[in-house]
Specification:
This protein is of the alpha/beta class and 406 residues long. It has 3 domains: 3-81, 2-Layer Sandwich (Alpha-Beta Plaits); 90-170, Alpha-Beta Plaits, CATH 3.30.70; 175-390, Rossmann fold. The chain is built from 16 helices and 15 strands. The chain has a 7-stranded mixed β-sheet with strand order 12-11-10-9-13-14-15, sandwiched between helices. Strands 2-3-1-4 form a 4-stranded antiparallel β-sheet, covered by helices on one side. Helix 13 (339-344) links the parallel strand 13 and strand 14 (347-351). Helix 1 runs antiparallel to helix 2 and helix 3 (102-114) packs antiparallel against helix 4 (142-156).
């Protein structure tokens, strides 16, 4: 069995350190692994090299030590046995907090250890509008970690997602989003009801339906019946009133730039969702169709209602249309009628969701910025900002800085 030599170098970062290290190594040496990170100007550089019988590990270590010490850096070395299988399955834990404190990381670390897993790497990927950390975990079992960490996140006030790492995470190509209280901050049926003088009654029914207390289709038909008599001009009025969730535009344009397919699936109404989808440049929309006769709403819905099962069916259809397996899909929603869709997707994300949804979803985000979902995909804030800058776009909302370096 061959051995390996680990070289750990630390010190104040300066140009040329990495070049000096590799110049000090024999040119024929085999590099097994390299990791480098700079935090607040302090460099940590780790290099793992293969040591075969004809290679003198102490000679290599002395050569590197002389070079690195002359550059004002510190070095430690260790010789270990190589394992036949040194590539354990890796999980990725994404943690979001505003702020994110030491208690959160302490709790997460303890849970990871209790589940027999190991933290291989921690990296900050965003400092606003929330702090986002990405932890690479080896030897972990995803279901157990997800349950334990979800409970801790709810108790300690941070958001967390546990996913498979590697190519599976990078391969997702379809994102399907709920609309009301997800892509927008409003419930369209409530805005329409205000115009009909039935706002309070509809709000009460909506709240109970989204919490899973009422049958969705029955409650929707009851609410729609209260809209009878409104003229169809009400749709354009409501479109002017709806408030996009901060980050919705950014999320859609970044996903589209990465060749993701994006869809809006709503238990709301196509007369509003269609123009909203066009504005956000999404690929598909699915929603209920309100019956309009002679320019007046009848209080009825045309065709089959897009309910809980209908949302899941839409996700599956869009995936099939694009030849994308369900394991490479993402669903985002907040209400009980999103549960089947979140369950069907490869990654189900509860966004500022009702408790019943947070308890069932793979991941939960409880900050008012929809583009933080990008952090769950491993996309950093710096990458988002560069994309906007390269595209000549202004930030969608004013960033909240927390005295962190970028």
């Amino acid at each position: 069995m061959t051995k390996s030599l680990m070289l750990n170098i630390t010190g104040f970062d300066k140009p040329g350190i990495t070049a000096q290290l590799f110049d000090a190594l024999p040119k024929e040496i085999t590099i097994l692994d390299v990791e480098q990170v700079v935090v607040k100007g302090i460099l940590t550089l780790a290099v793992l090299i293969e040591i075969t019988p004809e290679v003198d590990a102490s000679e290599i270590a002395d050569s590197v030590r002389a070079t690195i010490s002359a550059a004002g850096m510190q070095i430690s070395t260790e010789v270990t046995d190589n394992k036949d299988n040194d590539h354990p399955a890796q999980l990725v834990i994404t943690v979001l907090g505003s702020p994110l404190n030491g208690n959160a990381l302490s709790t997460i670390s303890q849970i990871v250890a209790k589940n027999g897993a190991n933290i291989d790497r921690i990296e900050r990927i965003a400092s606003y509008p929330v702090t986002a950390l990405e932890l690479k975990i080896s030897q972990g079992e995803i279901a157990g970690l997800r349950r334990s960490l979800a409970a801790a996140a709810a108790a300690h006030g941070f958001d967390i997602a546990v996913q498979e790492g590697g190519l599976r995470r990078r391969g997702r190509q379809l994102v399907v989003m709920d609309v009301d209280s997800t892509v927008i901050q409003d419930e369209v049926v409530e805005l329409l009801a205000e115009k009909a003088g039935a706002g309070e009654k509809v709000k009460e029914i909506t709240a109970r339906a989204m919490a899973g207390e009422l049958d969705f289709e029955q409650s929707l038909r009851e609410r729609v019946s209260l809209l009878k008599g409104l003229t169809e001009s009400v749709f354009s009025e409501v479109l002017q009133e709806i408030r996009l969730t901060p980050g919705a535009k950014t999320l859609c344009r970044v996903l589209k730039s990465l060749d993701f397919h994006v869809a809006l699936v709503s238990g709301g109404f196509i007369q509003v969702v269609q123009p909203l989808g066009e504005m956000l440049n999404v690929d598909h929309v699915e929603a209920n169709d309100l019956e309009v006769i002679d320019g007046v709403l009848t209080g009825n819905i045309l065709g089959k209602v897009v309910d809980r099962a209908g949302k899941a069916a839409a996700l599956k259809k869009f995936a099939e249309d694009h030849g994308i397996p369900l394991s490479r899909t993402i669903a985002i929603g907040d209400g009980a009628n999103d549960l089947d869709m979140l369950d069907a997707a490869g990654l189900g994300i509860a966004f500022n969701a009702k408790p019943i949804v947070q308890n069932a979803a793979d991941a939960s985000v409880n900050v008012p910025y929809l583009d933080t979902v990008l952090y769950l995909l491993g996309i950093t804030r710096a990458e988002i900002e560069k994309f906007d800058a390269d595209s000549g776009l202004q930030a969608e909302y004013k960033p909240i800085h927390h005295n962190h370096d970028h």
